[in-house]
Amino acid sequence: MRTRLPFHSNAVWPSATLVIPFVVIYGMLLVSIWMIAKGNSSAFGTVFNATEITTMRAVILGGAAGVYALFRVTRFHPKCNPAYAVWLKLSPWTAGKPLPLGPIHLVWQDLAVIALLSLIASWRGHVNPALPAMAFGLVYLAMMTILLPFLRQWPASVALGFLWPALALPEIKIETVAGIFVAIAAVIWFGHWKGLRAFPWNAGADVQRQNGSIWQTEIRVEPVAAVGAPANVGWPFTVLGPKIQGHSISNRTAFWLSALFGWWCFCALRFFQAEPFPEIMLVLAIPLGLIRFGIYCSGVVPPFNVWGRIVSGRLLLPGYDKVFLTPLAAVLISIAGAIVLRRCGDWYPAAESLGIALIWFVFFSGGPTRKNWILTGQHRYRLMNQSRNRQLMRQV
Fold it and tell me: Beta strand pairing status for 380-381 and 300-301?
């Protein structure tokens, strides 16, 4: 029995809103060349093969392939179409069935479209026929990579965070590049496969994992001030309300994020062949320390000022001064890293990247957590603007 080639969906083909602009732009280019040549075939070939015209053709064809890749992802992926996702949630669709609107994976219609663009590119030569396929593949893989964090597929996102920058390393060979792209495609496929199996996407699963029990997710009663109180009830009620929403970063998450930042730094240093810059770690640590201190102490102040410390003889307040420990540790690590970096010779990219990763790890995992600091820190709350509070007060 003869089997038909699966068509998947008519919508996989590029829509008229994509085809018509491409035909108009490319047609205008050909008409302009014909008008310049004025019907002379030899002159037409000379103008057509000019460097400027060849560059314009390459940009048009590569841009068309990239736009088609954007269309394929944004048109068919439920995460890019909220109305489509809501409809799927209400339907009996499961991850074991094909997507009703059309597949997000590549199908034979995509090969036909890219083959047509490659044939146009190869006409009269001078444009690499592989250019449309390369542009389509890069944009498609990049868009699918960007979607993975929104699907909460963190292992795949971290793996791609290591794979993509590796392409910038100058010493890798073409065979290694091909292997990296194969690995990127495999990780993307696995991540989206798991993402579709987790549909419908909501925050309930994350809350359940954090609390460890579905009963805490379903039956937990939130404090009134956390869910129903207005945001401008005035001082001190705004500060004292039980609405601490800070979430600490686990050591595992801190490790992988720090490793990612260090790896990106290493790949950038190797790609740009940058000279050693030992002060970069100190330049990174000081602003991050100020930002962390600003986040922790935005609404609180010390129990008494510097003059009070001197008069009372309590120069150190462990319950409050512990907020300075993590920024201070990061600054000390950056100073030590700068000293080591000046003596590491040709190994400076690895040493500098390791130092930056260690600084990020200290900021991510260093204590105290913000929730612990707000609830147990020896501080007092900052007095808010009294004029604003008077506007909120009513006469009794």
Answer: antiparallel
d(CA 366, CA 353) in angstroms, rounded, equals 19
Host H or E run for residue 388: helix 386-392
Query: Using CB atoms within 10 A of its CB, is residue 182 exposed (0-12), middle (13-18) or buried (19+)?
Result: exposed
Other C-beta atoms closer than 10 Å to the C-beta of 72 total: 26
Could you tell me which of 106, 108, 14 has the C-alpha nearest to residue 67?
14
- Under 8 Å CB-to-CB from 114, ≥6 apart: which residues? 65, 68, 132, 133, 136
Look at residues 225, 224, 228, 227 and name the one whose alpha carbon lies nearest to residue 239.
225
71 burial level (CB within 10 Å; 0-12, 13-18, 19+)? middle
The residue type found at 101 is L
Q: Determine the Cα–Cα distance for residues 190 and 155; give it in Å rounded to an integer.
A: 10
Q: Report the b/e string of 309-321 with b at 16+ CB within 10 A.
A: eeeeeeeebeebe
Residue 113 to residues 60, 110, 245, 301, Cα–Cα distance (Å) = 15, 5, 49, 64
**103/136 Cα distance (integer angstroms):** 16
Cα torsion 71, 73, 76, 81 to 10°: value is -90
Pair of tokens at residue 309:
């410390």
CB 113 within 8 A of CB 68: yes
Amino acid code (one letter) for 366: G
pLDDT one-digit tens code per residue, 333-380: 999 999 998 888 888 899 999 999 999 999 999 989 888 888 888 888
What is d(CA 270, CA 26) in angstroms, rounded to the nearest whole number?
39
Q: What is the pTM of this model?
A: 0.79
Domain ranges of the chain: 10-133, 243-392
Which pair of tokens denotes residue 197?
Answer: 């199996």
Q: Measured on CA atoms in the order 135, 137, 140, 142, is the torsion positive or negative?
A: negative
pLDDT tens-digit map of 109-125? 999 999 999 999 988 66
Q: Which two tokens stand for residue 239?
A: 């500060």
